[in-house]
User: Fold this.
Amino acid sequence: MSLLSPAADPSALRDYAHDWAVVDVETSGLVARRDRVLSVAVVTLGPDGEQTDEFSTLLDPGCDPGPVHVHGLTAERLRGAPDFGRVAARIGAMVRDRVLVAHNAQFDYDFLAHEFARAGARLPVARRLCTLALNRRVDPPTEDLRLGTLAAHYGVRQERAHDALDDARVLAGVLRGSLREAARLELPLPFVPCPPRQDPQFAPRTPKTPCAYRNPGRAEPGGPLVQGMKIALTGETRTPRAELERRANEAGLNVMTSVSRHTSALVTNDSSSASGKARRARAEGVPVLDEATFVRLLADVRPGTLHERGRSAEAVIPSPAGPAEPRDPAPSRPAGQATAPVRETPAGRPEPAPSGPARPARRVAPDLPLSGRRVLVLGGTHPEAVAARRRITELGGAAAINLSASVTDVVLLEGGARDRRMKRITALAYPTHDAAWLDAPVVAPLSGPGGGPAAPLVLPRGGVVDLPQPSGPACGVPWTVTASWAQRTPCEIDVVAFVVDEDEQVCFDEDFVFYGAPENPGGTVRLHSDGPTEQTIGVGLAALPHSARKVVVAAALDGSAVFGDVGAIHISSGPGTSAAPLVQATLDAATTERTLILAELYRRGPLWRLRTVGQGYDEGLDALARRYGVDVAD
Assistant:
C-alpha cells in the first residue's frame, strides 16, 4: 500500500518521504536496562510507503520471559531460539540509514540499544519517529491512541495483537495513514535524534532506601537525635563518609546531599568551613554538630513517627471494558472530580489544598457556547492571546496551540491573518472568526466528534482533580503528564520532575528527574521524550514510597529565552502513554519567567490528586532545583 493516494500531489509529500524501518519488540518487562527482548520484527518501507523487506524472530533471553499472559511467549516456546547477538547484524543492516519508527518509540529504541550494547555493538540509528507523538500532533477523533484503535481509524487490518511481526505490519499501515494526515495539515514530523537522552553515564544508581520516618524538625542543643531527622555532612571526617552515612541510615536518620531550611543538623569538623553546605547552614540557622558528637548521638537515636500509609492501592474502581494493551491499560474516568483555585503563600509557592472532603465535580455545562470545541488563536500580543484563550475556557472550549485535525474554529487577532498556517487553514475551510466573536460566539453544530468521543476535562490554572484509583494490572500503569508547545518554538524546553516529601524537599538528588538523568533510582518517575515539542513525565503512583508526598512537574528554558517568547504550554494527563487523557489545561500567563511549575501530583488522604499550577520564576533551572533541595554545584 503506497503512501500516495490517487489524488495526492507527490511534490507536497516530499517532506514526509523517507526510508523507514518500522520495528516492534516484545519484552520480558518494561525496564530496558534490566529486562530483555523476547521477539523482534522489522518492516522496511521506501519513501513512497511501499514495503521493501521484513524480518522477525523469537529470541532466547536467558531469563524468565515475564508476563506470558500478555505476549504468550513461554520459556518452552523460546527455548532453542537464537540469542540477540546472532541476529544483531541482520537487524543493524535493516535499520541503518533509515528512520526507526515505533509506537512509543523510546521504549523500543531503548530495548534495542541495550541489546546491541550487550552484543558488543551499537544500534546504527541516527533518528527515530514515534507514531504516538505523531498522532498527538494529528489529534485524530479516536477514543485513544492505542495501536489497535489507530489501525481501525486508518483502515488497517490487525490480526494478532502482541505478535511482533503483525504489530510491525499494522504499524506500517498506521504510519502511512498518519503521514498522509500530517501532510494534509502541513504538520512538521516530530523526529528525535539518537541516541536518546538515557546515556549510559546517567544510568540510575542503586536505589537509596527512603527514610520511613517524618522529619521531626531541628536538633536541640545538647538534645538527642530523632528518627527522620534530615542530616547533611560536609568536609573531611575521621570515619569514612560512607560508614557514617550507613550508620545514620540504619538508625533511621535521613541523610541528605544538600542543606535547606528543613535540615535538622549539619555534621562538620570545621564550623568555619566555606563549603556551600556550611554557608547555607549558617544562613538558615541550622544546628552544627562535630563528628565526635554525632557519633555519640548515633548510639541513642530516639523513635520517630512513621510516614502515614496511603490507601490509594486499596480502593477499587471497575476495570475498563474490553482488552487493554499491557503498557497502557486505562482505568475508567474518575467517579469524583474537583476543581479549586491554588492559593499562593507569601513566598509564591503553591499552598497545599486544605484538608476535608473533596468538592463535587465541576463539569463544563453542555449548553456553554464552545462546549466540545477546540479553538486555535492566531496573532495578537502575548497578553491578548492569553486573554482570548482564557475566554475560550470560560465558554466551555479547549484552547489549542497547534493546528490539528481536532481544531474546530480559529480566532484571528491582530496580525493573525499573516500566520504561516493560514494558507492551510483556508484550504481546509476551517471556520475563522475575529476577536469580537468571543464576546458572543455563534457556532454551527459539529459535524464530527469534535476532539474524540471522550473529550478530556478542561482545567483552568489552579484547577484540581482527583485521579482514578485503579485495581489489578492497572495499578502498575504510570500516570502521565505530557507537556507540549508550539511546533516551531525556536528555543529548547526541558520538562523535569521533583519527587518531594512533606517539606517539599527531595529525599536525595536522584529524585530530580531531568534530561541528563531521565529516571529516578526506584524507576517510579521517568522522563519520556519522543518529539522536539513534547515531553512526558510518567509516575508510578502505586509504587512511590510513603515518604513521597508530591511529584512536581516543571518546565525550564535554556539560555536567555523567557516563556513570553514561547507562549502557551499545553498539558494533558491520563493513565499511560497511549490512553485517552482525562485532563487537559493550557498554561500561558508566564512572560519574563524562565522556569514554570506546570502541575503537581500530590497525596490527599487515600487519594492522589492533580493540580495545574502555572507558577513561574525568573530564576533558572539550577535555582529551582535548589529550591527543592537538590545539591547543584555552584
